[in-house]
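Today's session is about reading a structure prediction critically. Students often jump straight to the picture, but the first step is always the sequence itself: look for stretches that repeat, for charged clusters, for runs of hydrophobic residues. Only then move on to the predicted structure, which in these notes is written as discrete structure tokens rather than atom positions. Here is the chain we will use throughout the hour.
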Amino acid sequence: MTLRGAVFRYTLALEAAGFLLIIAIIWLDELLDLPRLLFGTPPTPLRPGEGLLESALALVVGAVVVTVTYRAFRRIEYLESLVVMCAWCRRVRAGDEWLAIEQFLERQHHAHTTHGICKYLRRGGIASALVIVRFVGSGQLGGVGRDGGF
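Below is the predicted structure for this chain, in token form.
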């Protein structure tokens, strides 16, 4: 489990525990008459219907809060999983630096790359491939040099 996942689960558990504590206090008040014990107020009769209604409302509010938190965490996870790629040179942002896709894959995913020819260039023939290689190598697109730099 990642640190992010642990924080995510801990936060949801803490929220749920908080609402369960509220429900426990509602029933303690109903059964023990807490205002009478704590503040010396006149005794109130036992009303289980009121405790049930308050518990149900606290449960509904708790479910809504936990659900909203869960969805917010999922959205944050999704947004953080996006890979930002330059539209022109296809470098990938990794923190404060921009890496060639090969470097990014190796650093982030420990994946090594190799090269091939895609089906679109195979269909168009080698002439199409040479045009693209010349265009990329010309610097107009920001071609990659031998050292992986631009």
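Discussion point for the tutorial: Residues 3-81 form one domain.
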